[in-house]
Amino acid sequence: MKSLGWCKEDDSTVCCTRICRRLELILIENIFYISISIYQWATALFCRHCMIKYKHMLRKKTAAKAKKVENCRVVTELLDKNGDEVESWRVFRIMSEFVMGFELLRKQGLAVTFYGSARTKPGEPYYKQAEELAAVLAKKKGFTVITGGGAGIMEAGNVGAFKVGGQSVGLNIQLPFEQKLNPYTTESLNFDFFFSRKVMLAFASEVYVYFPGGFGTLDEFFEMLTLIQTKKIEKIPIVLYGKDFWDPVIDFFHKTLLKEYKTISKDDLDLFHVVDSVDEAYKYIVKVSKSKSTRQL
Questions:
Q1: How far, in Å, CA of 246 to CA of 250, rounded?
Q2: Number of Cβ atoms within 10 Å of the Cβ of 176
Q3: Which of 125, 176, 130, 187 lies closest to 155 in space, CA to CA?
Q4: Whether the Cβ atoms of residue 169 and residue 146 lie closer than 8 Å to each other
Q5: Which sequence spans correspond to the domains of the chain?
Q6: Rounded Cα distance, 134 and 126, in Å
Q7: Are 116 and 126 in contact (CB under 8 A)?
Q8: How is 173-226 classified by DSSP, letter by letter?
Q9: Architecture of the 102-291 domain
Q10: What gap in Å lies between CA 72 and CA 133, rounded to an integer?
Q11: Are 115 and 143 in contact (CB under 8 A)?
Q12: Which residues contact 270 (CB under 8 A, 6 or more apart)?
């Protein structure tokens, strides 16, 4: 077999032939995982001299393209800061997050997902109530409690399940502030991409509980409503915890969206249920989980 032309090793065929041999073995063993890690394999299998030569060539090409289209968002956001490596390879990282996420979630039994603000502090009423609800669901009914893995309401949900010996899962996202994996999980994953994490959270459970929160909580809430409204997923019980927080939102739905602008239908207001205590939430979740147990995975 001929060399790639760059290699200066004494035995120039070694660099190329070992790539083919390794890839052939991987292909036989499991073709799917080649697509996930092909870039990492390629960088590991090329000899050092070949990789330096290749990166130098790629740097020159991408830098030249970047100069021609400096204001193109595709270029500015898909190139690294040195312009020497196209980030299109991130598709394999995205794929790996989906694979690992679904593999983790499919092992869970009956599950409930908690959403809410990462800024809610331990000792605050909603933190205590989220912890209490998670504990009673995990202990009495064997629910796996799934959260975004961070602080605030997410931590409270994990704490409640963790303390009673239940399954406590955290699907964490790497952020520059206010988000790191809390220590109260029995299983966890760290995500680089918001959208892959959102898919895992949206397909994770039989019941979804939304405590008061900010943009992230509202984003997850509206996405779930949209998926159910457009019948992309089956109707799933959505529990809104805290009337003081959610009543103004529902008033906006009713007065502005339904009556004034007619942008939603009356049936859309039945896609969620508002509760105001741990006991009320527990009874409703137990009731709907008995009549509805289909996982969206």
A1: 6
A2: 5
A3: 130
A4: yes
A5: 12-85, 102-291
A6: 12
A7: yes
A8: E--SSS----S--SEEEEES-HHHHHHHHHTS-SEEEE-S--HHHHHHHHHHHH
A9: 3-Layer(aba) Sandwich (3.40)
A10: 49
A11: no
A12: none
Residue for token digits 């697509």? 35
Structure token pair of residue 183: 């220590």
CA 29 to chain centre: 29
Tens of pLDDT, residue by residue over 37-73, are 555 555 455 555 565 665 566 666 656 555 555 556 6
From residue 96, give the alpha-carbon distance in Å to each of 62, 103, 205. 26, 11, 21
DSSP 63-77: HHHHHHTTT-HHHHH
Return the bridge partners of 168, or none: 145
Identify residue 97 by its one-letter amino acid code. Answer: E
| Of the candidates 199, 167, 211, 188, the residue with the CA atom closest to the CA atom of residue 95 | 199
| Calpha distance 50→42 (Å, rounded) | 11
Interacting residues of 147 by C-beta distance below 8 A, sequence separation 6+: 113, 114, 115, 153, 154, 155, 157, 158, 169, 170, 171
Q: What's the pLDDT tens digit per position in 73-84? A: 665 665 555 544
* pTM (whole model) above 0.90: no
Any idea what DSSP says for residue 108?
A: -
Q: Which residues contact 199 (CB under 8 A, 6 or more apart)?
A: 98, 101
> Where are the strands (E) in the chain, listed by range?
111-115, 144-147, 168-173, 187-191, 207-210, 238-241, 273-275
